[in-house]
Design a protein that fits this description.
The protein is of the alpha/beta class and 284 residues long. It contains 11 helices and 10 strands. It has a domain of 193 residues: 3-Layer(aba) Sandwich (Rossmann fold).
């Protein structure tokens, strides 16, 4: 797959982001459990359905999808990151589910069986396509006529304090990032709902609805959240770009932890977030 349109993202998720995600263990999935609940509620997988999950990662959404569709349904989880799929394989084996399969593939170009899936679903897995229009045309073709699409993506950075707290500190200390196309593949590529609607409509989807939801991101401690912010999300990307020395990184971590401490509530770190839950259908 090295020569696919998403080769850069494949390399990034296999060599940098994927290993980092896996290295945090279950903490990464615990952070976004409220997002999982929202996505599953809106997607409403039904017994007997065939589901395609894009960017299934470590399988935290894949397992409840498999449970929801039951023994007569099937879930195909697709991801480009082998380190994350390795965790997903273990998770699914431990679940005992026999109706889930996993595929290492680029969903933008992979030739899915046409008209197979009742539901195409993704939690934060669709913002990394080099060509979103081509990717969603491919996914529309994979859905059956009348089939549903449902995914979660991030709203703008300004609406996401869980990122903004750390990013503002890194920005002040390290300076602004190099200019970049705001729609380049990355966590915030789908933060403009008009753009998302246009991409889906051009790809052939109809009945497009975009709902703003505000789940909390759940951290374990200010210190662990600061460690996360050093290597993940917008702050992590800025730090990767600027390459500060070890002393500066440690200073950033301390300052971030102090800022996150203000969000401790009842022994739990709760950080406000905003996502879009996007739904659509392939026309019948």
């Amino acid at each position: 797959m090295a020569d696919t349109p998403n080769a850069a993202q494949r390399q990034y998720w296999n060599t940098i982001a994927g290993p980092r995600w896996v290295g945090f263990g279950g903490a990464m999935e615990s952070r976004v459990r409220a997002v999982n609940d929202l996505l599953l509620s809106h997607a409403a997988p039904r017994p007997g359905e065939t589901v395609l999950e894009i960017g299934c990662g470590t399988g935290a959404t894949t397992v409840p999808l498999g449970e929801a569709v039951g023994a007569h349904g099937h879930v195909l989880g697709v991801d480009i990151a082998e380190p994350m799929l390795a965790v997903a394989r273990r998770r699914i084996a431990e679940s005992g589910l026999a109706n889930v399969s996993l595929l290492l593939a680029d969903a933008q170009t992979y030739r899915f069986e046409p008209g197979r899936f009742d539901l195409v679903v993704s939690r934060f897995g669709v913002m990394f396509f080099a060509d979103p229009a081509a990717a969603f045309r491919n996914l529309c073709g994979a859905a059956r006529p009348g089939g549903r699409l449902c995914f979660a993506c991030w709203a703008p950075l300004a609406e996401n304090p869980h990122w903004l707290v750390a990013y503002d500190i890194a920005l002040r200390r390290l300076g602004p990032p190099a200019p970049q196309d705001p729609r380049a593949p990355g966590p915030l590529a789908f933060s403009d709902p008009d753009y998302v609607e246009g991409v889906l409509a051009a790809a052939g989807f109809a009945e497009i609805a975009i709902r703003r939801e505000r789940p909390d991101i759940i951290g374990t401690s200010p210190e662990s959240e600061a460690e996360h912010a050093l290597v993940m999300g917008p702050s992590g990307r800025l730090i990767d770009e600027k390459q500060p020395d070890a002393a500066t990184r440690e200073s950033l971590k301390r300052e971030m932890a102090e800022a996150f401490a203000a969000y401790m509530k009842g022994g739990e770190l709760r950080l406000p977030a905003t996502i879009f839950v996007v739904s659509a259908r392939r026309p019948s």
